[in-house]
Amino acid sequence: QVQLVESGGGLVHFGGSLRLSCAASGFTFSQYRMRWYRQAPGKEREFVASIRSTGDNTNYVDSVKGRFTISRDNAKNTVYLQMNSLKPEDTGVYYCNAFVRTNDYWGQGTQVTVSS
Questions:
Q1: Quick one: pLDDT at residue 30?
Q2: Buried (b) or exposed (e) across 29-67, using 16+ Cβ within 10 A?
Q3: Which of 29, 56, 63, 96 yields a CA-CA distance of 20 to 30 A from 73?
Q4: Contact yes or no for 112/51 (Cβ under 8 A)
């Protein structure tokens, strides 16, 4: 079955960096667009970034453009989110997402906390 496992979250200070990873299994990873979402306390889950199956097309929410970079390694079935210049408003649980064969799949999430 499809599994998505995030890692790499933690506590960082304002301006710091983190690199999130999402290890995928149970589907042909190299054929699917992958996405990152996040959910801040008391807020709805929001789209953060996506990357095409081939890695040559990426999209970002405006609030992270220029600070976050999504990438993937199809040989390792892993998608990454490099987060630089982190701000307190980036705090939340970050989720990996894949839409595979008409089903939406989510990982368990990884907590990112940015202190001011």
A1: 97
A2: beebbbbbbbeeeeeeeeebbbbeeeeeeeebeeebeee
A3: 63
A4: no
- Judge whether 85 and 67 are in contact, CB under 8 Å: yes
Instruction: Mark residue 8 as left, alpha or beta (left: phi above 0; alpha: psi -120 to 50; beta: remaining).
Output: left
Radius of gyration of the chain (CA): 13
Confidence (pLDDT) at 63: 97
Tokens of 7: 């890692």
Q: Which of 55, 95, 48, 98 is nearest to 73 (CA)?
A: 55
- CA distance linking residue 18 with residue 10, whole number of Å: 8
Would you give the DSSP letter of residue 101? T
The segments of the chain whose pLDDT lies below 70 read none
pLDDT score for 110: 98
The burial of 87, by beta-carbon neighbours within 10 Å (0-12 exposed, 13-18 middle, 19 or more buried), is given as: middle
Round to whole Å and give the CA distance between 68 and 46. 15
